[in-house]
Amino acid sequence: MKKKIRILSLDGGGIRGIITCVILKYIEEQIQRFDHPEAKLGDYFDLVAGSSTGGLLASILLFPGKEGKARFSVQEALDLYAKNGETIFNVSFWEHTLNIFGLFNEKISKRNLEKRLDEVFGNLELKDFTKPCLITSYDIFDRKAKFFSSHEANISLENFFVKDVCRATSAAPTYFEPARIKSLYGQEFTLIDGGVFANNPALCAYAEARKIRFSTILADEEKPDFPSINDMLLVSIGTGEVLKPYSFEKFENAGKIRWIAPLIDILLSANAETVDYHLLKMYESLGKRNRQNYYRLVPQLGKASPEMDNVSAKNIYELIQTGLVFVDKNRETLSEIARKLIKNQ
Q1: From CA 190, how far away is CA 12, in angstroms rounded?
Q2: What does the alpha-carbon distance between residue 229 and residue 203 come to, in Å, rounded to a whole number?
Q3: Minimum mean pLDDT among 31-45, 299-313, 320-334: which range?
Q4: Where is the PNPLA domain (predicted)?
Q5: Which residues are catalytic?
Q6: Which of 75, 114, 160, 221 counts the most CB atoms within 10 A of its CB?
Q7: What is the pLDDT of residues 231-243, one digit of tens each?
Q8: For residues 168-191, b (16+ Cβ closer than 10 Å) or e, as one string?
Q9: What DSSP line would sit under 3-31, residue for residue?
Q10: Residue 213, by phi and psi: left (phi above 0), alpha (psi -120 to 50) or beta?
Q11: Residue 148: helix, strand or coil by DSSP?
């Protein structure tokens, strides 16, 4: 039998990506325990997809090191988030004072974000990732989804600097201004966060995997080309579930301004739930063994703030605790995922 195509899908969520890091760190530790003490998670997936903060994480996991292997461990990714989160997301007192509630300008300056992305990724090109990727964004000029694929970057004009890809996928409206970037062939794009249409990019990842000749790209004849759902092991991770109720009384006569924040919250969660629904139904159509190859991991947010830019020391602590509580309750499932990843290596 052919090996499974191992797909990792990472939701958006700003600084809440710390939760994702904690979960991935445990899976990586189990792989190190079962397979190799120096193993890095990026080497145990065949395709990594991400939106917004998930796109940044995907780029870190697929950063090339020696001999075409992943350079960074999940712990190093977590360190990057904890170290740079405050610099990227924090807004000075004067910016707050001059820009109350972000009504006149974007909430966060792009300068800090772009500086950190340049420090981490330098002139790394999309085509140089260790494995295929799919990172989402949305083109507000041509009004269509824009997907960054390292597979496509190798065979077309769609190659970009990774720092520009990360800038585009993290350009969340009201947080960062749109990203104006160019491909390495000079084509210009005006892009915003892919989370506006695919905050959970797992279904996009499935569609991307269907068109890839994995046996050639991975130099492994046991990997299937143009895989079907039956050939995929799919792990999808969210950044914390926030199901805040909205009462009829509160919104009975609500105007446009009062609806803005709740509507964004509802759209993001509804998108993720809809993608999960479709994938569940797809996997339920398979045989008993293969239907167990889809994992949707979404912790309850607990005491952590649902805000994507809350980088207080207390909230970062609570985000880590949220991840740890989820890991503690799901050790068996996460270890099972690790073993399946190793089995299909």
Answers
A1: 19
A2: 11
A3: 299-313
A4: 8-206
A5: 52, 193
A6: 160
A7: 999 999 999 887 7
A8: bbbbbbbbbebbebebbeeeebbb
A9: PPEEEEEE---GGGHHHHHHHHHHHHHHH
A10: beta
A11: strand
Span 21-31, average pLDDT: 95
Give residue limits of the domains in the chain: 5-344
Residue pair 124/165 in contact (Cβ under 8 Å)? The answer is no
Residue 9 in this model has a pLDDT that exceeds 50: yes
Burial class (CB in 10 A: 0-12, 13-18, 19+), 257: exposed
- What angle separates helix 17-34 from helix 331-343, to the nearest 10 degrees? 60
* Rounded Cα distance, 279 and 283, in Å: 6
CB 92 within 8 A of CB 159: no
Answer whether residue 152 shows pLDDT above 60: yes
| 5-344 is a CATH 3.40.1090.10 domain | yes
For the stretch 44-88, pLDDT in tens is: 999 999 999 999 999 999 999 988 899 999 988 777 766 655 554
Angle at 59 between CA 131 and CA 15, to 5 degrees: 145
HEC letters along 176-239: CCCEEEECCCCCEEEEEECHHHHCCCHHHHHHHHCCCEHHHHCCCCCCCECCCHHHEEEEEECC
Site of tokens 């395709």: 47
